[in-house]
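debug: dumping io for the single-chain case to check the tokenizer round-trip. Nothing else runs in this session.
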Amino acid sequence: MSRKEPVAPAETPEAEASTPRRGLFAKIRRGLFMTHTEILEKLGTAVKKGFGVDESVLEALEEALIEADVGAETAEALTEALRARTRSAERTDLEGLRELLIEEIQKLLSSGPGVVAPPAVPLEVVFLVGVNGSGKTTTTAKLAARNLAEGRSVLLAAADTFRAGAIEQLEVWGTRLDVPVVRHREGADPSAVLYDALSAAKSRKTDLLLVDTAGRLHTKKNLMEELAKMRRIAAREVPGAPHQVLLVLDATTGANGLAQARRFVESVGVTGVVLTKLDGSARGGIVLAIV
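debug: decoded output
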């Protein structure tokens, strides 16, 4: 029986790569709009019931933040900061509370390391990890397109040898982007794919190797150990590799996404998180919980 030809997803990494950075941040703002709107609506309702910002409004804010998947610990910290600031005679109307909340969130987000520049190495190796359906393969293509637009040479490794159609999907993107893809047959050892990809990248003097790994539940110890094995192979073949391990998370998974992040950090040393599907959820607070 012949296999159906793989169909490329509707998203277009090529178009996204050509978007200026201002457009990138505009896209993030649009993605978080639903979360922002829902929190403000709940705050507005609480303020109308009382007189300005009082304890009941702050409790409503904390509840709204938790429902947006900010996480209990982060929601409590943000609410406590706002409680202290409203006590110090700062603005206590809804618009004032909104501005104070934005300031506190900005403080939280700016506490991170910021944009990470590519390492000064002949070959940068990046792993993309996460559970099934989070968007790893499409994210791999988007990263390839962005780096190509910056003038870097790219090689893709189809190390997801378990999901039906995963190899073909990555090859479709490779063809569209004119990027070579190292692949084995379906069901092959992912570590063997990685080894061949590392060898090919070194011989071709490639700037960036993107490794699309198989989806795995963070609770499956043997699959997490497989990733650890791949890390060891990369480090043996290329000093310092993998230079980045990016966890791709579906923003709609909510609190489970935070559990995934913690487990992957513990097991494979995640260096960054890619959040997908932000524009389809009012629960984008997972961004703050992860930070």
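debug: round-trip ok. Residues 21-49 form the longest helix (29 residues).
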